[in-house]
Design a protein that fits this description.
Elements lengths: L1 H25 L6 H12 L7 H15 L3
């Protein structure tokens, strides 16, 4: 049970990094995934680095929301 709670917390933190990295790329003009991940993790004070695909998916969602066809 304790392990599941820890994993859930890690996943929550990872989602925060994904969200912030995607926002940095979409709104902040950051071009490189690695730069966005590092900036997001540093701002959040954690050391979690999601995949580029996870970030790209959220960037795509932001674009769909802010640039409807």
């Amino acid at each position: 049970m304790k392990k599941d709670k820890k994993k859930g917390h890690h996943e929550e933190l990872k989602r925060e990094v994904i969200k912030l990295a995607a926002e940095l790329m979409y709104f902040g003009g950051v071009k490189e995934y690695l730069t966005a991940k590092r900036m997001a993790a540093k701002q959040l004070g954690i050391n979690i680095f999601p995949s580029n695909t996870e970030i790209r998916d959220v960037v795509d969602q932001l674009a769909e929301f802010h640039e409807p066809n």
